Amino acid sequence: MRKHIDPVCGKRINRNKAHIVVTYGRQEYYLCCPVCQREFEKDPRKYVKNVKR
Ligand SMILES: [Zn+2]
Fold it and tell me: How many angstroms does the Cα of residue 21 sit away from the middle of ligand 1?
């Protein structure tokens, strides 16, 4: 099973445990909490780059 990583805090998240799933640039990003969600929405590109290594 694929694990998802919260791009803001770097935590691994199970699909059913995510606070929210946001779609950005055709990709889904799993965020663990409202704080990470807000950070992500403030500047999504910053975090998207972190994920694609
Ligand atoms: Zn997080």
Answer: 12
Kindly give the distance from the C-alpha atom of residue 4 to the centroid of ligand 1, in angstroms, as a whole number. Answer: 11
State pTM to two decimals: 0.81
CA of 1 to the centre of ligand 1 (A): 20
Instruction: Give residue 24 CA to ligand 1 midpoint distance, Å.
Output: 16
* pLDDT score of 13: 94
Identify the H or E element spanning 47: helix 44-51
Note down the domain range covering 26.
4-51
Q: Work out the burial of residue 2: count CB atoms within 10 Å of its CB; fewer than 13 is exposed, 13-18 middle, 19 or more buried.
A: exposed
| CA-closest candidate to residue 33, choices 53, 1, 10 | 10
